[in-house]
Amino acid sequence: MRKKIDCRDHPSETHCTLVIAGEEEEVVRAACEHAVSVHGHTDGPELREQIRSSLKNEMPQHA
Q1: Which end of the chain has the lower number of beta carbons within 10 A, N or C?
Q2: SS3 state of residue 11
Q3: DSSP states of 1-54 as a string?
């Protein structure tokens, strides 16, 4: 099942609205890069675990 993370679930000073969805490892990698470049976090195992624990299952969208 695809996973997603939504910046709106984690309030920030930038009021970021980015949503990242995909396979779990893709989302963790992209969300970590985003957290570092946009939100000023430091990359490392703790950040990646925080992101991983925040992932939600993406609900399939029907056309």
Answers
A1: C
A2: coil
A3: --EEEEGGGS--TT----EEEESHHHHHHHHHHHHHHTT-PPPSHHHHHHHHHH
